[in-house]
Amino acid sequence: SAIAVNSTGRIYVAAAQDNKVAFYNTKGQLEGEFGAPGTSTGDLVSPGRMRITVDDEIVVLERPESGLRAKIFKADHSLRKTFLIDNLKNCEPVMLGVTGDGKAFLNDHMGARGIVAFDLATGKFFGESQTTKDGQKFTNPGGLGAGRYSNIVFVHSVQGLVACTRPDKDSGEA
């Protein structure tokens, strides 16, 4: 359901059906897994999206019956943080982007919230935006990506591709 690569070239593959993340070395050989039920490594439920931070932490978006939830695993695969993604509908295509300054961005393609942001250090809601600061509206944002080593977020909507910096926490503008 998702794939990501860390700074050393280790490959991570999230398997929604198996409720786990497997990881492989640069030669494609299985090295291990985490999140599998009963392993006490932060059991995952239908992991759908995954990104790796600049510090090689693994951010996994999962879909339990209660809604959307994010789990952050340290580089050693131990669970560091769990937080709920409130007020986003649990349906496809929810996208996930992670910026170099520790923010997670998700699209609200089924609602009117546009793009929502969470702080990865605390798990707290950071803000939301329906438009860029120059007024371009995120219409049904479907695709979303973020610069792992920067604070740039890319959004694809009905209007086309938009690149913007993350919202400034003081002004709220994107």
How does this structure look, described?
The protein is 0% helix and 45% strand. The protein has 174 residues and is mainly β. The strands form four sheets. The protein has a four-stranded antiparallel beta sheet with strand order 1-2-3-4, with no helix packed on it. A four-stranded antiparallel beta sheet has the order 5-6-7-8, with no helix packed on it. A hairpin with a 5-residue loop joins strand 13 and strand 14 (152-157). The chain is globular and about 45 Å long. It starts with a strand and ends in a 9-residue tail after the last strand.
Mean pLDDT: 79
Distance between the amino and carboxyl termini: 29 Å
| Number of strand elements | 15
Which band does the percent of strand residues land in?
Answer: over 45%
Strand order of the largest sheet: 1-2-3-4
Can you summarize the main beta sheet?
4 strands, antiparallel
Report the helical percentage. Answer: under 10%
Unreliably modeled segments: 161-167
Give me the Rg, rounded.
16 Å
Summed up, what is this model?
The chain has strands spanning 2-5, 11-15, 20-24, 30-34, 47-52, 58-62, 68-73, 79-85, 96-98, 103-108, 114-119, 125-129, 143-146, 152-157, 160-165. 0% of the residues lie in helices and 45% in strands. Residues 161-167 have low confidence and may be disordered.
Give the SSE map.
Layout: E1 2-5, E2 11-15, E3 20-24, E4 30-34, E5 47-52, E6 58-62, E7 68-73, E8 79-85, E9 96-98, E10 103-108, E11 114-119, E12 125-129, E13 143-146, E14 152-157, E15 160-165
Antiparallel strand pairs: 1-2, 2-3, 3-4, 5-6, 6-7, 7-8, 9-10, 10-11, 11-12, 13-14, 14-15
